[in-house]
Amino acid sequence: MKPYCLLVPTLFLAVALGCCFAAAAEERQQEQAPKIQVTVDRVNVGVIVTGRDGNFVDGLRREDFRVFDNGVDQPITDFLSVIEPAQVLLFIESGPAVVFLGRDHLHAADQLLNNLASDDRVAIASYSKDPELLVDFTANKMATRFALQNLNFMLGFAELDLSASLASAIDWLGASRGKKTIVVLSTGVDSTPAGKWEAIRQKLETSDVRILAVSLSGDFRKPLKHRVRNREEKQDRTLLKQGFAAADQSLRELTRITGGRVYFPESPGDFDRAYAEIAQLIRHEYSLAFAPPAHDGQIHAITVKVKAFDQRVDHRQAYLAPAPAPAASEK
User: pTM (2 decimals)?
Assistant: First the structure.
């Protein structure tokens, strides 16, 4: 393990950069969110249901679910319990916050591969300012391990555009069929300009791609081995805690709106448990569908409820309704 004195300035640099870019973005003119155009004849919703133990709950039936569109109960037109090979994009931060711990977290990522089934297909991408696809989807775990071993952790000293990079990854996956998951290994530091967030949020929450995130900042949070002696050190420590809080909230929000979840492991055992749960969740879900009740071209909120206690339900939060039919032209 590298000395803590090396780790604090590294993450502090990343957090400070994130704050600087956010502040600069607020001074810029807000960018207008691009319009998303899509035709939807039915709305598909992938739902993960887990118990207190974190395991997927099997055996639920159509009548155990209720689906709401903008708060209004909708008939479920299709229902299927899905167990199938996963398509997983492993999305890894390659910036300065993990440069000293890169090899340790490569081992953690390798543990995730160990938990996946032999027929699960994996792609590898890294990101700093922009995402870079290193290996396309393959069931060849040797190829993915080779890509992990050759990751460059010296990128991203200027920017760590987490949410913008994820939006690009959603575009990559748009044409792929089947169940799609992005597993993000990241500190959560995000320097994407604030003015872009609304468009990114709409893209993420209306997509059919689930984001699961594993925070890589646990090693940075271990207590200092010496007392904080002066006001400057206390201020640095306060800023560091604020940066951690913002990074954690970023990961929570990115996963929540896509129907995923986030893990904050602090030990090798925590990583193992997180990856074992992820390997289970990426293969299992309940697939529900309903007919959109309105053709208004607006974003509609989705809520799914399960008729049982002590169960957690995760699903995407919204969809874009079809546009209104064009008015008949006058003769």
Answer: 0.79
Strand boundaries in 41-179, DSSP class E:
43-50, 65-69, 72-74, 78-83, 87-93, 121-127, 131-138
Q: How many CA atoms lie within 13 A of 205 on its CB side?
A: 19
pLDDT confidence band for 99 (50 / 70 / 90): low
Name the least confident of 84-88, 95-99, 233-237, 288-292.
Answer: 95-99
How far apart CA 29 and CA 130 sit, in angstroms, is 22
**Cα–Cα distance for residue pair 83/286, rounded to 1 Å:** 9
> Which pLDDT band, with edges at 50, 70 and 90, does 245 fall under?
confident
Decide: 159 and 20 in contact? Cβ < 8 Å: no
Question: Which residues are within 8 A (CB) of 44 and not within 5 positions of it... i.e. 6 or more apart?
Answer: 78, 208, 287, 288, 289
Altogether, the residues listed in the chain come to a count of 331
pLDDT digits over 37-73, tens only? 444 588 999 999 998 888 889 899 999 999 999 999 9
Pick the CATH number of 4-30+85-222+231-281 from 3.40.50.410, 3.40.50.300, 3.50.30.40, 3.40.50.1970: 3.40.50.410
The domain locations on the chain are 4-30+85-222+231-281, 43-82+284-320
